[in-house]
Amino acid sequence: MTADGGWTVIQRRQDGSVDFNQPWEAYKAGFGDPQGEFWLGLEKVHLILGDRDSHLAVKLQDWEGNAESLQFPVRLGGEDTAYSLQVTAPVASKLGATTVTPSGLSLPFSTWDQDHDLHGDKNCAKSLSGGWWFGSCSHSNLNGQYFHSIPRQRQQRKKGIFWKTWRGRYYPLQATTMLIQPTAAEAAS
User: Is the pTM of this model over 0.70?
Assistant: First the structure.
């Protein structure tokens, strides 16, 4: 699970072999196979990072073989904050920090059975599929439904894995990887 440079892989999607439409307790504990598709677990990620400044790297791949990546500074709260993710500084990238907008806003993690998103009248995890740090349900969801080909129906596509500022809201991605690392200054202390 640990990659070069001290990065820890916390999520991998590549073939649809694992259902990511899981309840809160599964996202808290983790599920899947670290050699294939998996979610490490919110509690494990929080234990690795604590409340320290850290970095989150996101790697994305589309169905044409194109790949993009993004890295941004974050903090992850504990279960008492619903594992809120906060981008701690502005991100200069063509992909943008679409999980959290603007810099400084904390987004709690939501699942279909524990709705913590910022969309007051809707449960984003229930309507889109998969647990995630949802704001308004429309910026990103790397834990959405995996499609083996791109569905024709837009309503179906919106439930897929997406990163709005790269391939758009209705383009389900083929593969994703998320990695974390405490910042160098924090890790040295």
Answer: yes
